[in-house]
From TrEMBL:
Gene3D superfamilies with a match to the protein in the record: 1.10.287.130, Histidine kinase-like ATPase, C-terminal domain
CDD domains attached to this UniProt entry: HATPase, HisKA
Transmembrane segments: 6-25, 157-180
Naturally occurring in which organism (per UniProt): Cognatiyoonia sediminum
GO molecular function per UniProt: phosphorelay sensor kinase activity
Pfam families for the chain: HATPase_c (PF02518), HisKA (PF00512)
Organism ancestry: Bacteria, Pseudomonadati, Pseudomonadota, Alphaproteobacteria, Rhodobacterales
Keyword Transmembrane: yes
PROSITE patterns: HIS_KIN
Protein name (database record): histidine kinase
Keyword Protein biosynthesis: no
EC number(s) on file: 2.7.13.3
Length: 461
């Protein structure tokens, strides 16, 4: 019964039976009242024979009492209490019930008291005579026939309730199967069919349910599947484009590398014009080679996972700063290594070199573009949770657009002709360490990037 329809069937039976119980309680108490009133009416009718003939035989009196199923009949008229019919009582009277003006709770309580009392005993019943036949009528009778009649009536009610419950539950079960379960199973089958090939637009669900709620669900699923299929197709096209760009960049890098070798030969020329043009040519080719290498690095989907070892950070930062000092536009820039010599971190040395190199190079280019002196410093420290590395510069700060798209490929570039891939690659490499690269501050006084590498085996958020 783990299915929706099975549970619905059980709940329906339970609720219908519960409703029948609420019906049974007042019903059985009403049956008892009607039963006793009927005995009062029979007794009153039997007493009328005495009104017609004051002298009746003992046999006729016994027959009248037997037909009324009572022992004695007392009829009160004009304040005179008169024993109309009588016979010997088998037992003393143990309980009296007044039916002249009972409350609902009294009737219910008396009914259940009768049902729960298995002993046969004599009871007195008091009521109003019919058709103003007197002030009151009083009878004595055995309780057991009343109890047996109530039990038979209750059993009939329970059997009828069970039949009604089964029929109602069956009808509701069939209705739920047709209106809810089958359409739901159809939606699940459509989802499974779509999941097998989400790129196939033919497998997108077509809303067919007649129930409004299910149709709304199908329409929402159709919209989600349509958007997902479109996104997957776009992703596939981008992957193909990235593969093509990587292949072109690979071959172009080889060509540019050959051209770079030729420029080394040209530098030895004595021609003044050649000497003036060669540095520009070398810088242009160098930038083109760097762009190709960056594009290739970004296009590689099989970037190896970092090899995490205990590494000294100070030599890595020193190598980065030494390489950047050799740049032609770094003459007025001061490079400062503020990483403690004893600082050791857990990480991949080669990947950390690439990340710090990207950040320092971006800082150098930003300061060089202002044609003003500047300072770039790399600092390192640690606490109980993580190692921290910051790259600070005194440059002009990042433009608003660059801040908004800082870690998005081909959108976060600051320099003219820049691609912004360096920041994307750096963020991915740090993420592979379980850490985080973030922009801590940028304004007209400079920019600060912070790298956090976790000490525990959890990702930083």
């Amino acid at each position: 019964m783990n299915s929706l329809s099975g549970r619905f069937l059980i709940l329906t039976i339970i609720f219908v039976m519960l409703a029948e119980v609420f019906i049974f309680v007042p019903s059985v108490s009403r049956f008892r009242q009607d039963y006793l009133i009927d005995r009062l009416e029979r007794a009153q009718i039997a007493s009328l024979s005495l009104e017609a003939d004051d002298m009746i035989s003992p046999d006729l009196e016994a027959e009248l009492l037997e037909n009324a199923e009572v022992f004695n009949v007392v009829l009160r008229r004009d304040e005179i209490r008169r024993l109309a019919l009588s016979s010997p009582l088998p037992l003393p009277i143990e309980e009296s019930f007044d039916l002249r003006d009972p409350t609902a709770m009294t009737l219910i309580g008396d009914a259940f008291a009768t049902l729960l009392d298995p002993e046969d005993k004599v009871i007195r019943v008091i009521g109003n005579p019919v058709r103003d036949g007197g002030l009151l009528i009083e009878i004595t009778m055995m309780q057991m026939p009343l109890r047996e009649a109530m039990i038979d009536y209750g059993q009939n009610i329970l059997v009828l309730s069970a039949v009604i419950s089964i029929i109602t539950a069956g009808l509701l079960f069939v209705s739920v199967q047709i209106l809810v379960v089958r359409p739901t199973k159809s939606v699940v089958e459509q989802m499974q069919r779509y999941a097998a090939a989400p790129e196939d637009a033919r497998r997108i669900i077509e809303p067919q349910a007649g129930v409004k709620e299910l149709r709304d669900a199908e329409e929402a699923l159709q919209l989600m599947q349509t958007q997902l299929t479109g996104a997957l197709k776009q992703k596939e096209r981008l992957a193909q484009l990235g593969s093509a760009v990587a292949k072109v960049s690979h071959d172009l890098r080889n060509i540019l590398t050959s051209a770079q070798l030729f420029t080394d030969r040209i530098e030895s020329s004595d021609d003044p014009l050649v000497k003036r043009m060669v540095p520009k040519l070398v810088n242009s080719i160098t930038r083109a080679v760097n762009l190709c290498e960056t594009t290739l690095a970004f296009g590689r989907v099989d970037e190896p996972a970092p090899t995490l070892t205990i590494t000294e950070l100070h030599p890595i930062v020193a190598d980065v700063l030494d390489s950047e000092r050799l740049s032609a536009d770094a003459a007025d820039i001061t490079f400062v290594n503020e990483v403690p010599v004893s600082m050791r971190i857990r990480g991949d040395g080669e990947q950390l070199f690439r990340v710090i190199n990207n950040l320092v190079r971006n800082a150098r280019q930003a300061i060089a573009a202002t044609r003003q002196p500047g300072t770039i410093s790399v600092r390192g420290w640690e606490d109980d949770q993580a190692w921290h590395i910051t790259v600070c510069d005194t440059g002009p700060g990042l433009p608003v657009k660059a801040q908004e798209h800082l870690f998005q490929p081909f959108q976060g570039g600051v320099r003219k002709g820049g691609t912004g891939l360096g920041m994307v690659i750096s963020a991915d490499l740090i993420r592979g360490h379980g850490g985080k690269l973030e922009l801590e501050r940028t304004d007209e006084n400079g920019t600060v990037f912070c790298i956090r590498l976790p000490k525990a085996d959890v990702d930083l958020v």
